[in-house]
Amino acid sequence: MGHLNIGKLKATRIETEPYKYVVVPGFLSAETVQAINASYPKIEKGGSFPVESLDGSMAIKDVIAELDGPEFEAVISEKFDVALEGRPKMYSLRGYTRAKDGQIHTDSRDKIITVLLYLNDNWQQPGGRLRILRNGHDVDDYVAEVPPDNGTLLVFKRADNSWHGHHPFEGPRRSLQMNWMTSEGSKGFHAIRHRISAAVKKVMAG
């Protein structure tokens, strides 16, 4: 039995204002979220971490394998009317949010589609809730707010106006990010940057 609720994704309407996005609460079941968190890697610093070194027994690896499959790609391609077949994909994990994170941005131009899968339990904090914004300067001018919990899926198409951000939060906040990239070169650049960032954090922690 798969972890992804593809049927629920198919049935959820894509929003087009102020840009294309879809939010699917409960895209992962409570059982899957629990299994992921039982073996989630220990991430106590901010920033993104590559997934290549994850242990094969971790439940998050099975979820990544399904996201990597043709069924999920086909649904996203159809919903967002964009050709994704053959495009490189990049994955990263987050486990800790810093107070400076969540500043308003659109994502870099080398990202075609951004997928965020939230892995926390029953988010109660006022901060850390991603908002789909109407502009690039006011985090309170939003059309949707996404609590980062309970297997919720957020997907959006990167655009010059794909503004998003959240009010500050510092502490544990787990999520998996996936991107379809414009090229292998851009994927490699981000992966190298993440590896350098993780290595620096490891040295500093030591």
What topology does this entry show?
Layout: H1 6-11, E1 21-24, H2 30-38, E2 49-50, H3 59-67, H4 70-80, E3 89-97, E4 111-118, E5 130-133, E6 142-146, E7 153-157, E8 164-165, E9 171-181, H5 184-205
Antiparallel strand pairs: 1-7, 2-3, 3-9, 4-7, 4-9, 5-6, 5-8
Describe it.
The chain is α+β, with helices and mostly antiparallel strands. It is built from five helices and nine strands, in the order H-E-H-E-H-H-E-E-E-E-E-E-E-H. It has one domain: q2cbj1_9rhob like domain (Jelly Rolls), CATH 2.60.120.620. The strands form two sheets. A six-stranded antiparallel sheet has the order 1-7-4-9-3-2, covered by helices on one side. A three-stranded antiparallel sheet has the order 6-5-8, with no helix packed on it.
Features of the shown structure:
206 residues, alpha+beta, Jelly Rolls, 3-stranded antiparallel β-sheet, 5 helices, globular, disordered C terminus
Shape, principal axes of CA atoms: globular
The CATH top-level class label: Mainly Beta
* Low-confidence segments: 192-206
CATH topology: Jelly Rolls
CATH superfamily: q2cbj1_9rhob like domain
Strand content: 15-25%
Helical amount among residues, as a percent range? 25-40%
Number of self-contained structural domains: 1
